[in-house]
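Form P-L/3: holo structure prediction, ligand 8-OXO-2'-deoxyguanosine-5'-triphosphate.
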Amino acid sequence: MTGTGATATDRRLVVAAAIWDSLERPSAMLCAQRSAPPELAGRWELPGGKVEPDEAPEAALHRELAEELGIKVRLGPVVPTAEGADWPILHHLRMRVWLAEVTSGVAEALQDHAELRWVARDELDDLDWLDPDRPILRALRAATR
Ligand SMILES: Nc1nc2c([nH]c(=O)n2[C@H]2C[C@H](O)[C@@H](COP(=O)(O)OP(=O)(O)OP(=O)(O)O)O2)c(=O)[nH]1
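OUTPUT (holo model):
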């Protein structure tokens, strides 16, 4: 088994992007509706996914966004919790969230999502988010004020 070596990636880390129309003047964010598994289908999330063994977190995020949405992004700062960098999420996983903006491509639901939607900052709460994402949304609003 891997998992204890110095270079082993933390298998519990999920990386995700809060993709805004503009990092300088954020007014709308790209929201993604899950298509699977059945118990999570229909809920909204930040696009991203699990870091693979021996993959750097930022590289994992760029890979996931290319696979799932067909876009390249510029990453801004990480949005931290009060305690540290990573948010507690489903299944005892942790999630690191970066602000981001699209640098090439037009986001399409290529994989894992039923729908993508650009949502105005003040209307983000109206979607049916995964429960662990609610406090992250509050921090995102504060970080983009
Ligand atoms: N991408 C993403 N996952 C989230 C969010 N909030 C949250 O609790 N999660 C959970 C749902 C999943 O249990 C887990 C992410 O796993 P995933 O299935 O999307 O990862 P993946 O694309 O790498 O897929 P796989 O390797 O499991 O097939 O994190 C969020 O905002 N975005």
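COMMENT: The first strand starts at residue 13 and ends at 20.
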